[in-house]
Please model this.
Amino acid sequence: MLDIPKRDRRAERRAATRAEILDAAWAQVRANGLAALSLRDLARTVGMQAPSLYSYFDSKHAIYDAMYAQGARQFVEAEPSDQPGDPLEGLKQLVRFYVGFCAADAARYLLLFQRTIPGFEPSAESFAISEGSLERVGQRMAACGITDPDAVDLFTAIGTGLTDQQLSNDPGGDRWIRLIDDAVEMFHDYMTKKAKQPPARRRAR
Amino acid sequence: MLDIPKRDRRAERRAATRAEILDAAWAQVRANGLAALSLRDLARTVGMQAPSLYSYFDSKHAIYDAMYAQGARQFVEAEPSDQPGDPLEGLKQLVRFYVGFCAADAARYLLLFQRTIPGFEPSAESFAISEGSLERVGQRMAACGITDPDAVDLFTAIGTGLTDQQLSNDPGGDRWIRLIDDAVEMFHDYMTKKAKQPPARRRAR
DNA sequence: GTCTATATTTGGATAGAC
DNA sequence: GTCTATCCAAATATAGAC
Model:
């Protein structure tokens, strides 16, 4: 008996329609803002009446959930994995990726990394991507010889600051994106210099 | 004829009621989020029916406008004005003030510095506070001998990054607030070192 | 100035025919 | 699976009596 994989044409069509709905949903939130997703408009866009959407998604939140999962998958699949030879370059690479990923789609950034949808909590997957990413940051930092426990917090602040300014004040441009390498060098210089100081010299607070 | 200032008791009462409404509006957005301001609930809180609010404000946007003006006034009145002797301390002071001001009231931060209310544009006053503040940043930076044109952008990215992380991941705490002084020293070290390098050494992009 | 009553729009979600 | 019809809730805003 030949091993022909069973194709379920009905399931395939259903998955295709789901994908089509999600694509339209992304287009809508990019155009009108993340919170302005309307099931009526969404249905019209894909040539349906609003109630028909419920054959594909249980609720509006379920659509956000699916969009979140898509965005999270895009993030982990695009994240640079292999550490380059220069450890400093490894840090730059992470920030370039993160800021670039966020700046490429503001709505996706808000959905994944900010909490702006009232009542929407992406549960486990949220921690998965952010903790996985934070772990990688820690590893690459250790490769640079940076062990200060505050270093990761300062590093993430730099990354989100560049992202926030880029999206808020120069969307579509590169005014803060082109500062990334300098910012990471600044961070690296400071942390490596600080590590050489005896702990007693650091002032108490 | 004695110079007794004319008191308009009616105008006083009206102003007091307006202030009462605004206080209730702030309480509501702090509790439910900036975008969740409901005129019905707001009216109930101050013991009115919803339509009565229109005797005090022309529209919901007018309430946001008044809230914006209040927040902007709070910002400029609390902003540190006199430059301390140590120029580096001057920079730290600015960031401490900005992050502290934002962290003290997340809803106010969103209204003043992020654009999250659809269709709400605070017009002239918005530029007034941010440009006035940016000007002060430039002055204090010059006092440190920092003249790099990118310095202000990098500095603001650090400030907003600390703010964003503090509000997003440790609201009410001080996990990023206590990194402010270190972050400013990091920035200062880097910019002063960079200034001593001959411009030719800086890589082209 | 404040109320009741209402207009109008828009939203998410459900019932049931086909 | 898709539709029509409908429900229900909430929103801003207006008209007009008192």
Notes: The mean pLDDT of chain B is 93. Residues 38-40, 50-51, 54, 59-60 of chain B lie near DNA strand D (CB under 10 Å from a C1'). The helical segments of chain B are 9-32, 39-45, 60-78, 87-104, 106-113, 123-143, 151-169, 180-196. Residues 82-201 of chain B form one domain.
